[in-house]
Amino acid sequence: MLVLSRKVNEKIRIGADIVISIVAVSDTQIKIGIEAPTSIKILRDELYENIKFVNKQAAEVLRDVKPPADLTSLKINKRDGND
Prior knowledge:
Blueprint: E1 11-14, E2 18-25, E3 30-35, H1 45-63
Antiparallel strand pairs: 1-2, 2-3
């Protein structure tokens, strides 16, 4: 892990298109601003861990779901190539 010291209004650059700015510092909190392309998801770690946990639970439930024995009863939309 890289550990850097920064002051308010100083920045850290990650690659060419991600900039982390120190916005404010108090006794109990540091506020940071992150500039990044919209294609990059930025999440707080506790949200990321929660999403990972929920996805794992959903995968376990789906693993136990059995498909119907007669798959011919399923309706499938087929494209005719004229779209």
